[in-house]
Amino acid sequence: MPTAPTTDSVLRVISAFLLTYLTACPLAATPAGVAVLRAAAWSPGDVVREGAGEFEVLLCAARLQHEHGTAGIVGVGDRHGLFLEGSERALHLLALRGVPVAKLTLGGDLAADPQGLFIDASGLSETTASALLTRCLERHGAPPSAADPEHPTARELAKIRAHLQPFREAFAAAALPRLAAQ
User: Which of 72, 78, 92, 154 has the smallest C-beta neighbourhood within 10 Å, fewest atoms?
Assistant: First the structure.
């Protein structure tokens, strides 16, 4: 007897389709594309909202990569820079696929990033963070991708972190004048 597909299996199929689509598309010779994504309002146990959030993040990145070749995301999360679980999972996947993610908070401290895959954009406006991420992408290029984003190796994680270091330095330098003024 056939069973109904789970949300995870449907999202994995959609993710695979989007990633296949991205690799089949010719890359345009245009400047890097950066989008600002905002966290959806929290709703406990709302699996549909979580799945839609994950799909929105992946679709946005696919569109940017199709139109620009090189893409980045500025994520405006909750007061700790977090998104619903599905969106966080998609942002993590993108960070492992060569799409840098800069995170902003809504007035709090940025949550810890144990793998070091996200860029701390605290203290910057959305506009400043977007412009800075675009400049970093154009200057340094996209970070390397993990061969298997579900199971990145320690070497792949180290390469991604090392590539993001100049991005982090640029964001920290841009935030200094704002922090000093406060």
Answer: 154
Residues 30-70 have pLDDT tens digits of 578 898 888 876 655 655 555 677 888 888 888 988 898 89
pTM above 0.70, yes or no: yes
Give the 3-state DSSP-derived string for the chain, with helices as H, strands as E and coil as C: CCCCCCHHHHHHHHHHHHHHHHHHCCCCCCCCEEEEEECCCCCCCCHHHHHHHHHHHHHHHHHHHHHHCCEEEEEECCCCCCCCHHHHHHHHHHHHCCCCEEEECCCCCCCCCCCCCEEECCCCCHHHHHHHHHHHHHHHCCCCCCCCCCCCCHHHHHHHHHHHHHHHHHHHHHHHHHHHHC
- Count how many Cα atoms sit within 13 Å of the Cα of residue 25 in the half-sphere of its side chain: 18
Q: Any long-range contacts for 6-11 (C-beta under 8 Å, 24+ apart)? A: 7/47, 7/50, 7/51, 10/51, 11/51, 11/54, 11/55, 11/86
pLDDT tens digits for range 93-130: 999 999 999 998 877 777 888 889 999 998 899 999 99
